[in-house]
Write a structure and sequence with these properties.
Number of strands: 10
Order of helices and strands: EEEHEEEHHHEHEHEEHHH
Strand content: 15-25%
Number of helices: 9
Low-confidence stretches: 256-261
Mean pLDDT: 84
Helix content: 25-40%
Largest sheet: 6 strands, mixed
């Protein structure tokens, strides 16, 4: 479903602030893969997601999504192919618009726009049922402004918005980092459900090693713009936090007293 072929990205090349963010990174995701991504500060995690989303062009390499080369495709033209949930619950939605209006915008992402009612009766009924399935009472707040929702409710709504068009790829960019532990656990549970029920292919950046092990079917570890560990299946399920720390130290050549470096954003 996703092929990253030797992609590289350097910021501020030829200056004192030159930073090589991605170094010939290659990654292949099969349809239905749910891959968690961990790594230290500056490992290239968010740069990889931004490159996939088209936020900025890569210097070298190719990005192929479901057989289509999207390397040169601008960000807005990838909107119909990729769903994304950001770390900040305030991003990804229009806070001054109603919840149903936000969902309607997401429902029509990538479609041609015309002159018609903002939210149809059929759409409103669909949104009610989808929100009811989240179990957060949001089905009774269809006309509430999104900016008035709690962080957890907003992330749950954004998850639904990102997945409502059945994207080829769902990007979860530390989408629980700004939430309290209980709310984060609920949003992760919803993430598992939405990915599983819709058969989506997903990449999730997380700073929490326990979550990285517990969720998804594959785990990759990044360091200095490249992937240094890729595990899945039974091996992933049997991993412990300490084993991950030890693997990072061995593979990255860095000895850590704690897991703070690995867990940093």
């Amino acid at each position: 479903m996703l092929h990253l072929e030797s992609i590289s990205k350097t910021f501020n090349p030829g200056t004192i602030n030159e930073k090589k963010a991605l170094s010939g990174l290659s990654l292949h995701l099969a349809p239905g893969d749910f891959v968690t991504v961990i790594g230290g500060n500056g490992a290239g995690k968010s740069t990889m997601l931004n490159a996939i989303a088209g936020v900025w062009p890569v210097d070298q390499g190719r990005i192929i999504l479901d057989g289509q080369d999207i390397t040169a495709l601008p960000e807005h033209k990838r909107a119909g192919l990729i769903g994304r949930v950001f770390q900040d619950p305030m991003m990804g939605t229009a806070p001054n618009m109603q919840l149903e209006e936000n969902l309607a915008l997401a429902r029509r992402r990538g479609d041609r726009r015309g002159l018609r009612w903002g939210v149809t009766k059929a759409e409103r009924e669909e949104f009610y049922e989808r929100l009811k399935g989240l179990g957060l009472g949001l089905e009774d707040r269809l006309t509430a402004k999104v900016g008035l929702l709690s962080g957890g409710q907003r992330q749950a709504a954004t998850l639904l918005m990102a997945a409502i068009k059945q994207p080829k790829l769902l990007l979860l960019d530390e989408h629980t980092a700004a939430l309290d532990p209980a709310t984060a656990a609920k949003v992760l549970e919803l993430s598992d459900r939405i990915v599983g029920e819709n058969g989506l292919t997903a990449l999730m950046i997380t700073h929490n090693m326990t979550d990285a092990i517990r969720h998804g079917n594959r785990l990759i570890m990044m360091n200095e713009g490249r992937i240094i560990l890729d595990v899945g299946g039974q091996e992933k399920q049997q991993l412990t936090k300490q084993q991950l720390v030890d693997k990072f130290a061995a593979l990255a050549g860095v000895q850590m007293e704690t897991d703070e470096v690995l867990l940093s954003k």
